[in-house]
Design goal:
By secondary structure, the chain is mainly alpha-helical. The protein has helices at 2-9, 24-27, 33-45, 53-62, 66-71, 116-128, 156-173, 183-196, 201-208, 213-217, 225-237; strands at residues 21-22, 77-78, 83-86, 89-92, 98-101, 110-113, 220-221. 47% of the residues lie in helices and 9% in strands. Strands 2-3-6 form a 3-stranded antiparallel β-sheet, with no helix packed on it. Strands 1-7 form a two-stranded antiparallel sheet. Strands 4-5 form a two-stranded antiparallel sheet. The protein is globular and about 60 Å long. Pfam families: Phage_integrase (PF00589).
Length: 239
């Protein structure tokens, strides 16, 4: 029975799940759609944190790993075709040295299509990006989207702090408190939202850069008769 269960979990089926409940083991690191919208609206209108709105929005709506986001360069954005090219990630180690690494797995190398909203966010980022006479170069890569006061690329720790401080300010104003939000929470929230919207698991696996379909399928659970009925009728009607 255990072997059969394992085979089922690893079966890369192709049908689309139109109505899902998201596994609690995954959603414990995600926030609700309502919480996400309230947080983003707050950031957008805040005098200080509005400078991070576009980046926050992109992280919530692409599912990128923060190291992948930090590693993005101007050349990685195909604005003509609306595609994000991901084939590396930016790291900064405990000795404060920077480096470029390949994605965690081969599946991490991918292209993410931009929604119109994500496209507009990247357009604003590119328009507001300062022009430097000398760009930092890390392992041959240059043109990073965000630089710190020392003219070095922003890394994961920077964004974690920006999220932390934004949430703290939000919670100091509003009675309904937000949970902890990090770039990793953004990634899980994106995965959860796409699963709830009925995205094909194989498509979601590709967008998330998961090497194992089982990781993605962990988001799709508790499928019931009504869910199956709706899907069967939908497929029959499309023929």
């Amino acid at each position: 029975m255990a072997l059969e269960d394992d085979l089922i979990l690893r079966n890369p089926f192709e049908f689309q799940v139109s109505v899902v409940l998201v596994n609690d083991s995954v959603t414990r690191e995600a926030i609700t759609v309502d919480q996400m919208r309230k947080f983003l609206n707050f950031v957008k209108e805040d005098e200080h944190f509005s400078r991070y709105y576009e980046a926050f929005y992109i992280l919530f709506h692409t599912g990128m790993r923060i190291s992948e986001f930090c590693g993005l360069t101007v050349k990685d954005l195909n604005m003509k075709e609306g595609k994000i090219n991901i084939d590396h990630q930016l790291m900064r180690w405990s000795d404060m040295k920077y480096g470029i690494e390949s994605p965690k797995t081969n599946a991490g190398t991918r292209q993410i299509p931009m929604t119109s909203e994500v496209y507009e966010c990247f357009k604003i980022i590119l328009e507001q990006r300062k022009k430097y006479k000398v760009e930092p170069v890390i392992d041959g890569y240059r043109g990073f989207l965000f630089l710190d006061k020392n003219k070095m690329p922003l890394v994961a720790l920077h964004w974690e702090k920006y999220f932390q401080h934004a949430v703290e300010k939000y919670n100091s104003i509003y009675k309904a408190q937000l949970p902890k939000i990090t770039p990793h929470v953004c990634r899980h929230t994106y995965c959860s939202n796409q699963a709830r919207a009925g995205m094909n698991p194989k498509t979601l696996q590709y967008l998330m850069g998961h090497s194992d379909i089982g990781v993605t399928l962990n988001t799709y659970t508790h499928i019931k008769y009504d869910d199956a009925k709706d899907e069967v009728l939908k497929m029959a009607g499309s023929r």
